[in-house]
Design a protein that fits this description.
Elements (H helix, E strand, L loop, with lengths): L10 E6 L6 H13 L4 E4 L11 H11 L4 E4 L2 E2 L5 H14 L6 E4 L4 H6 L7 H19 L6 E4 L4 E5 L11 E3 L4 H10 L2 E2 L11 H14 L8 E6 L5 H11 L3 E5 L3 H26 L49 H33 L4 H9 L10 H30 L4 H30 L3 H34 L1
Parallel strand pairs: 1-2, 1-11, 2-3, 4-5, 5-8, 8-9, 9-10, 10-11
Antiparallel strand pairs: 6-7
Helix pairs in contact: 3-5, 5-6, 6-7, 8-9, 8-12, 10-12, 10-14, 12-13, 13-14
């Protein structure tokens, strides 16, 4: 499945632990969520857990302490919350808050704990079937114009219940779903999908989204009728979140955790940056990519791989590298576009020059021909220098800068290209794999530097690692330029 963006408005929130031992602190974290400009606060719901506050009571207090914040369970435990009662709880709080409640809902895990407090023990198939029935019942209770609520199902019986109250706004029901049957139910009947990154990683999202989309279409709905929410950790940066929005359609990001500093960063820094990146990506996606009536032909040239190999080892099989489609020879480019493409070559040339100097310095020290003062003078003229003029410090600096460069490509440049041209996805995936290999070689250099400190013979290990790094890096830089300088010109 290619990149997908359902076009939903971005939303950001928090996912708090309802710890009874820190009840006041939980409410204050929710207040902080509103103060830093986030949209919603969500609370996990485990009614069998004696250490936790009751979720609906807590949400009511949070709603009373805030004025704009939306609230939701993440997700409500259906087996312990009968659907008619749950529907009326949601509607009541929605009325009292002026329409600030949404319903995250789950089929119910932890069957032993549920059974221990008197709830039904259900198989996975039964849990999905019960949730399917509950969705119909909840919506029927909210429909005050739909007549008496009647339902004769395997898991629930409702015999002529009066509907109401109606919520203050159309409450969305978001399902916590991971398995195919739950995902299909999400696509067929739910308003949103609410997984956690810890249980459904980004690489799993395309296949799961596809099940939801297919089920939505089969039910006569559009895939965009289902909002995509995601519980994420504080370690996920703005670039990755923007990529999740532009390539996987995730549009509501909920920070899991109780660290007030992380919540402040998420509201003050992360959310605004994600909004800017996604707005730029969506704007770029709507622009024509070809300039055919004016401009210049593409003149930027990739640096060729000279084919020289210094190490007996090989970092990867170069014959398996995918390639981007051949650019349109009739396309024309502005001066700025050409400069953008050339910038990658310029950055790579800096690393090529520094790599030559690094190799020369290692050879001189190994041969005993470099004086300490001469080595200091050489390192002092280099771009990637440190205040401590030692071989180890310089190597560490080079390795760190190279890692930062690759990390920047992985988190910012590649997502933009992947979104702009799906045909580039195999190339970008391969480049990301090669970044991982190079990172492993850099780790070898780190270990070799430690060996040099303990034993001068460790210089041989260092040189062997540098030979492999040289082969891999020069090959990688040439391959990346060959495939990406023209797309960079097109997409910026």
């Amino acid at each position: 499945m290619g990149a997908v963006d359902y076009g939903h408005e971005l939303q950001f929130g928090t996912f708090l632990t309802p710890s009874a031992a820190d009840a006041d602190a939980v409410v204050e974290l929710a207040v902080l969520t509103e103060l830093v400009g986030l949209d919603l606060v969500t609370i996990q719901d485990h009614p069998y857990q004696a250490r936790f506050l009751d979720t609906w009571t807590l949400l009511a207090v949070i709603a009373a302490r805030t004025s704009t914040l939306r609230v939701s369970p993440n997700v409500a435990n259906l087996p312990l919350r009968p659907p008619v009662v749950l529907a009326r709880s949601v509607a009541t709080l929605d009325l009292l808050t002026g329409g600030r409640v949404e319903l995250g809902l789950g089929a119910g895990g932890f069957q032993d704990a549920i059974a221990a407090v008197g709830g039904p023990r259900r198989t996975p198939a039964q849990a999905v079937a019960a949730l399917d029935e509950a969705l119909d019942i909840i919506r029927a209770v909210w429909d005050v114009d739909g007549g008496s609520v009647r339902h004769q199902g395997e898991h629930y019986r409702v015999i002529g219940a009066h509907p109401g109250p109606a919520p203050a706004h159309p409450v969305e029901i978001w399902l916590g779903a991971y398995k195919p049957r739950m995902l299909a139910l999400t696509g067929a009947k739910a308003d949103g999908w609410l997984p956690s990154m810890s249980h459904a990683g980004p690489d799993e999202l395309p296949a799961m989204n596809a099940i939801i989309d297919d089920a939505a279409l089969a039910a006569g709905r559009a895939p965009s009728d289902v909002r995509r929410l995601y519980n994420v950790g504080a370690q996920v940066g703005p670039e990755q979140l923007a990529d999740l929005a532009l390539t996987h359609g995730m549009s509501t990001f909920i920070l899991a955790g109780d660290d007030p500093d992380a919540i402040r960063r998420f509201g003050n820094d992360v959310a605004p940056e994600v909004r800017e990146l996604v707005a730029a990506g969506r704007s770029q996606a709507t622009r024509p990519t070809a300039v055919t009536t004016s401009g210049e032909p593409f003149t930027v040239r990739a640096t060729p791989d000279d084919g020289v190999r210094r190490s007996a080892e090989t970092a990867w099989d170069e014959t398996t590298r995918p390639h981007a489609p051949t650019p349109d020879p009739q396309r024309r480019y502005t001066v700025d576009q050409l400069a953008t493409g050339k910038h990658l070559v310029d950055v790579h040339d800096m690393f090529r020059r520094e790599l030559v100097q690094l190799r020369d310095l290692v050879e001189q020290v190994e041969a005993g021909t470099a004086e300490v003062g001469a080595a200091r003078d050489l390192i002092n003229t280099m771009t990637l220098r440190q205040n401590n003029w030692t071989l180890g410090a310089y190597c560490e600096s080079y390795c760190r800068m190279l890692t930062m460069h690759h990390t920047g490509e992985d988190t910012l440049v590649f997502p933009r290209l992947r979104h702009g041209d799906p045909a580039l996805r195999p190339v970008i995936a391969r480049l990301e794999e090669e970044h991982e290999v190079i990172a492993g070689i850099l780790d070898r250099i780190d270990r070799a530097l430690v060996a040099v400190v303990a034993d001068p013979e460790g210089l041989h290990q260092l040189r062997a690692a540098l030979d492999l790094l040289t082969d891999a890096l020069l090959s990688h830089l040439s391959y990346e330029e060959l495939e990406l300088v023209e797309p960079l010109a097109r997409f910026g």
